[in-house]
User: Which sequence fits this backbone?
């Protein structure tokens, strides 16, 4: 072998470029790995952290049950009961070919009262989705049945459902929630934030075997609060029963009853008819959800005459013993006629209220300046909210214009030309009976808190308010026997108004009665409105007064208020003897 061949076969003589190529490849690989590591750890570390969290981080939610609504005595009006929701995981269903279990799916469709084709189509149309609601808030019995079907991908989830034990009796006041437990109407909507609360959550990390290895954070739940209403469900039930019976008996379109505590402004009952079942609202017309006691406005008719009389007493153009000459029983104001059914001659203010004389009320109204009369109507709370803050409350309709004709002032004096809610009428009679102090109405029970200055206001003198309240007892005793309550002295005033239509008045009526008891120490005010009674009976004394009597009787007994029928009017008659009646001629007072 020659020297040249030996030199070529020597492994140490391999071309150096191969060696450098290998080093370059290794350096490139290490450089790429270092660059990638630097990029991940320095420039974009969040992505890997997110991926890691998806595999190990878990959140355990802690839901909070919606608060209850109870009456003043703790009776439950709205509660949350445990239910379950059926949901599907289409991906699991498709991966396990669960749709082949046709009998099981038919059973599922039957128990959910759904069409099987539509039910399965929801899964087929979204095969990769991981969550679909099939039915919300089913009963435990249905949930157990579905659980036994053991269909892969069909799951149950615990939720709560709102239940209203009193049903239609308190439906308008309490309202209801939607399927997600959000308040939609009534108290449920008004206090939705308070009743809802906030759920808690615990964030923790798990290892590959599912064991908790680290608690990251804990958010404590904020418990929902219960709402205690001023309503007494016993009185509410009495009011609803009597109202519903009257609406049906007189074939009326609707009706409302409001009962309130004269001294606190607390609403003890507020009910309407027709009502609805809040536990099953299917096929219920939307107009039935309306709380007519605060949303619907009516001309109050003769229930306003005590306010007109009180205004004249306050101004001083008349006294409690004044005699007003209403002869000849009619008069013309600006070409328009004001009249009584007959010539009643000379009447005292008490007799004007007892006979419901339009002539007498008109003369009282025209004896005071226009602005003074209007101010007293506004002071009584008309054209303003009552303070309940209930959803949908109307402020009514009371014009505040500069020009009023004498005829318009006359009609205003007997309750035409303005429109108010039953709640507003309640507030006025409450102010009249408690000595002239107007209070805000409240639907939440007061717990002995101090009354804020803005929640009460003196609008009439105590002397004149008490005088008119005593006159209302005579109105009931001599003119409205159907409003009497055995064992109690009762005062009140009827009202019958014709419903306004476009261009004037139609043929439908509204029957009203507003009253207080016991007269010796007024405690309770009750207002009854029957809208559009049919047939021959439509006056307030015939339609609304009997409802008032029965509701007032029930309220007085529930509240354990002592009868006062033995209290005589001796003191009242003594005052009359001491201050004899005098006849005065009332003329129009021009502002």
Assistant:
């Amino acid at each position: 072998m020659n020297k040249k061949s030996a030199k070529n076969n020597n492994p140490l003589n391999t071309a150096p470029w191969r060696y450098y190529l290998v080093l370059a490849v290794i350096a490139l690989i290490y450089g790429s790995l270092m660059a990638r590591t630097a990029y991940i750890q320095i420039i974009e570390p969040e992505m890997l952290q997110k991926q890691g969290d998806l595999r190990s981080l878990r959140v355990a939610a802690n839901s909070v049950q919606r608060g209850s609504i109870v009456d003043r005595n703790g009776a439950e009006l709205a509660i949350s009961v445990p239910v379950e929701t059926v949901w599907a995981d289409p991906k699991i269903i498709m991966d396990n070919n669960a749709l082949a279990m046709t009998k099981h799916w038919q059973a599922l469709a039957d128990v959910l009262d759904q069409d099987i084709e539509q039910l399965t189509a929801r899964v087929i149309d979204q095969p990769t989705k991981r969550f679909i609601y099939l039915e919300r808030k089913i009963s435990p019995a249905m949930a157990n049945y579905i659980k036994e079907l053991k269909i892969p991908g069909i799951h149950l989830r615990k939720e709560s459902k709102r239940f209203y034990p009193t049903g239609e009796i308190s439906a308008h006041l309490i309202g209801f929630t939607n399927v997600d437990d959000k308040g939609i109407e009534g108290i449920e909507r008004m206090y939705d934030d308070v009743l809802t609360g906030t759920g808690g959550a615990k964030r923790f990390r798990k290892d590959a075997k599912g064991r908790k290895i680290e608690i990251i954070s804990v958010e404590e739940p904020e418990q929902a609060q219960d709402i205690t209403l001023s309503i007494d469900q016993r009185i509410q039930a009495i009011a609803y029963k009597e109202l519903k019976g009257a609406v049906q008996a007189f074939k009326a379109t609707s009706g409302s009853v409001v009962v309130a505590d004269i001294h606190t402004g607390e609403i003890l009952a507020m009910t309407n008819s027709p009502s609805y079942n809040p536990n099953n609202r299917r096929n219920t017309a939307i107009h039935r959800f309306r709380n007519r006691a605060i949303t619907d406005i009516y001309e109050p008719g003769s229930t306003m005459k005590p306010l007109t009389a009180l205004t004249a007493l306050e101004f001083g153009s008349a006294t409690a013993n004044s005699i007003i000459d209403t002869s000849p029983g009619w008069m013309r104001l600006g070409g328009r006629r004001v009249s009584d059914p007959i010539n009643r001659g000379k009447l005292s203010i008490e007799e004007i209220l007892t006979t419901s004389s339009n002539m007498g009320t008109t003369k009282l109204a025209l004896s005071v300046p226009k602005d003074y009369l209007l101010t007293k109507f506004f002071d009584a709370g008309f054209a303003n909210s009552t303070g309940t803050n209930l959803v949908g409350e109307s402020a009514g309709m009371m014009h505040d214009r500069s020009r009023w004709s004498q005829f318009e002032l006359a009609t205003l004096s007997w309750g035409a030309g303005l429109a108010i809610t039953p709640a507003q009428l309640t507030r006025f009679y409450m102010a009249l009976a408690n000595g002239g102090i107007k209070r805000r109405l409240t639907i939440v029970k007061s717990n002995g808190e101090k009354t804020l200055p803005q929640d009460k206001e003196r609008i009439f003198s105590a002397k004149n308010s008490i005088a008119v309240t005593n006159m209302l007892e005579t109105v009931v005793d001599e003119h409205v026997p159907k409003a009497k309550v055995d064992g109690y002295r009762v005062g009140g005033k009827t009202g019958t108004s014709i419903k306004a239509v476009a261009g004037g008045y139609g043929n439908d009526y509204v029957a009203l009665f507003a009253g207080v008891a016991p007269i010796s120490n007024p405690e309770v005010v009750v207002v009854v409105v029957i809208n559009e009674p049919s047939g021959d009976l439509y006056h307030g004394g015939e339609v609304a007064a009997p409802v008032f009597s029965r509701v007032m009787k029930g309220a007085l007994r529930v509240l354990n208020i002592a009868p006062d029928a033995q209290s005589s009017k001796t003191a009242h008659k003594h005052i009359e003897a001491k201050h004899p009646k005098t006849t005065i001629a009332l003329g129009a007072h021009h502002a």
User: Anything to note?
Assistant: Residues 570-579 have pLDDT under 50 and may be disordered. The first strand starts at residue 57 and ends at 62. The CA atoms of residues 489 and 519 lie 5 Å apart.
